[in-house]
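S.,

Sequence below, as promised.
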Amino acid sequence: MDTTPIITDDTIVFGLLMLALGFVFLTESIKTGFWPKFYKIVPGLFMAYMLPAVLTTTGLISPEWTSVSETGVETENSSSLYYMASRYLLPAALVLMTLSIDLKAVFNLGWKALVMFFTGTIGIIIGGPIAILVVALIYPDAVGGAGADAVWRGLSTLAGSWIGGGANQTAMLEIYEYNQARYGAMVFVDIVVANLWMAIILIGIGKRNRINKWLKADTSSIEELKEKVSTFSEKVKRNPSLTDIMIICAIAFGTVSIAHLSSNFLAPFFEDLVAGIESPTTRNMFTFLGSKFFWMISIATIIAILLSNTKAKNYEGAGASKFGSVFIYILVATIGMKMDLTLIFDNWQLIIIGIIWMSIHALLLIGVAKLIKAPYFFLAVGSQANVGGAASAPIVASAFHPSLATVGVLLAVFGYAVGTIAAIGCTILMELAAVS
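The prediction came back faster than expected:
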């Protein structure tokens, strides 16, 4: 079936995404009338995410599509914008947002950040089997299947994605040998449910003061970090010259190039090293080490932390983190265009499983946050470090303050590390739930 959108040229699509972002920022800057009331309820970051989703839903643009030639030959096509944003702009944004970081202050955020991260992990581990048990009571066929077609095998890939990331998801596909002809449906559930949850988190950011009050959270460590960065920014603030801007670009994209160059060597090296491990379980635990994306993000962040101890951090005064924020918003827009809202009604039984699963993850996070009085920041970033990984966690963290993006990256790295082994534990429980 031909699913070609109205506009397929990435240069035009990028322009539409930038117009959408411009509309968000323009309306958000209006201080009277309808818009201040609107943005008091709906955060600008959520709108930056949702407007591209509306463009995709209406068929104007699409992240991927099938075109059919006059002879009936089908061709799979896709936009390169998300790849560009996640591989070029995301690491550049992390560099620019980390330049002025006070790493000691980040570690002073304390144990609650880790507790919320691992709570999110546990929520995914127990959420899968509970979702299967609940749905089995109403739609037994939705959780059935045998051999390579068993639904629990497919759901194992969701566990890998929602605890770690793409590399962990692929590892689970290989470990449990799910029918790859049906794998597309699982990828779809991953995109829909994870993006819906991210949308809810973004809405929550706009209400974080009220949520923190309800949680009785102590936000002093977060405010202290924000205050340190803001004070430093004011201290070195200046009107940026063309030289300043060019050097900021050089620092950002020079680091990105080094990160990509290094990942091109490190990923294959570790992939071969991991492939030589005899134990399949141990081997798949470390599959993420063969991911270029993992090394690219990690190296970019490490270099940025090193630069934050040099005079390069003074470029924060010329607006380094503002440039980083621009890149983050472009990434948010490209993530939003992956969301076709009408597809929620396709594969609806699997979507129900995913929604119940994610709801358990969310409820556990809320319960523990209330118990330990953790700020909403830790809940949101702890969740996205699991579900969204290194692409989404910095987005959510930087929405609170640009200086907090590094926290999202550090927690996402934990997700990569524990992703496969935790997903295996989840899958064992899902198999037991499916056959019970």
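The chain has 19 helices and two strands.

Coffee later?
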